[in-house]
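Loading example: each entry is read as two labelled lines plus one structure line.
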Amino acid sequence: MDVTEVLLPGVGVRYEFTTSAGDRLGIVTARSGDVDVVAYTADPDVAVPLFRLTRDEADTVADILGALRIAERFADLTREIPGLGAGQIPVPAGSPFAGRPLGETRARTRTGASIVAIVRNDHVIASPGPGQVMRPGDVLVVIGTHDGIAGVERILRG
Amino acid sequence: MHTSVALLVELGVVLAALSFLGAAARRFGFSPIPLYLLAGLALGPGGVAPVPAAGEFIRTGATIGVVLLLLTLGLEFSVEELSVSLRRHLPSAGVDMVLNAVPGALTGRLLGLDWTGSLALAGITWISSSGIIARLLTDLRRLGNRETPAVLSVLVLEDVATAGFLPLLAVLASGGAWWQAVLGMSLGVAVVVLAFIASRRLRGPLARLLDTADTEQMLLRVLSLTLIVAGVTELLEASAAVGAFLLGLALTGQVADRTRAVIGPLRDLFAAAFFLAVGLSVHPADLVPMLPAALALAAVTGCTKIATGWYAAGRDGAGPQGRLRAGTALITRGEFSLVIASLIGTAGHGSLGPLTAAYVIVLAVAGPVATRLIDRPAAGAATAARARPEQAGGGRG
């Protein structure tokens, strides 16, 4: 994909690209952090505004799209290496580890599977450390053998 | 400490009135600057509601307002943006200067101003309001349009030219000879170049000096450094505004972002004081005889700005409608025309203040209106174009 970068002096940067579906999109990132997403249709000179995001909203969108990427990358990884699997395991509300640090599960020692990310609401905590506290409703992204992933799930259920 | 009841109440009422005016202007998507000017006219001597106690404070605030306006202008710059603008739009900047500064200079001579006054008027008609226009383009959702980079490049190059123009004018206004003025301008240009080099070299030390996590500390450090630099450059007869602008240029990257954030509200307050003070300094009775000249000058320089935008946007390959949008967007004059007029002072140029106030009031309103109106037919087409992909999406789903 060919992304054109257009400098908007004093305002920000505009990125333009054509999607495989043939839509010409523009993303304007202002200095303030606000993001304008526009499309070019009949008149190549005029951008049709699609939506405008504040800095926080843009971060959220980036996290959502990023979460998808992370899951996909793990899926690619597991396809390439036979015997390796990726699983998404929710932390149930009644779990003895809800509200406890990740390290206390000793999941890797006991099952050989690694917790590589925590998906919380709409954002992702990538490579969580052992001190990372889990909350009920979190979804853990786990990489390991299929037995290992099932083992982590059993530990979390208690 | 003696508390002046009159000052507190007058200032409070003035700020409340400004808040009301500003909200009304924003509601209709306009800049509050012309309304602040009119408010200043109404509050000054000869106006409808004089505020003698608050007037003193407003005039002091105005000095700080100019300094902060120029500091934030300098902060907006990046070397990369400037070099891209220079590469693509140096001819546009030339067209801009010739078409818009010349009518101002000629009018100055016709009105009987001396060379310095005429030069000031040339600057007043030349420099568009980057503040109002950048905001207007954002509000009108034109940041994605093809003509927009051309418009912004012209604004950036105007602002750089201001850095050379202000010292020249400052020396002439203080009664210096031509050679002193040229020396002052060369010094200004040299310092801009130095500031650009310094902004690369000094980034570390300046960041260490200014950048702290504590917002209060950051504000105090930035403000004190700015006022000291402004004061010293004023002492060197290069104008406080120029010093503040150069300091703004030297701050880049994260420090610039944080400085913008902490100084923003303060800038808005003192800039409002500056616009009020311009209004205050003009006697409404002096404004009326200047109206015909201001209107004629506004009409001529409105058209020359349209020609400028037409040329600049054409260089970026925009179509006729886009070139008109660019031209009409550039019409707006504002803060820098007023800064130039305030720099020259009133000594011997009595008519310049009222003329500039009237001129800015007219063009700060007419510019945004014109560029909205020019886009009406295209806005209808855009709505139609937006409806189509939605239908296509529905079909796919």
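The two ends of chain A are 47 Å apart (CA to CA).
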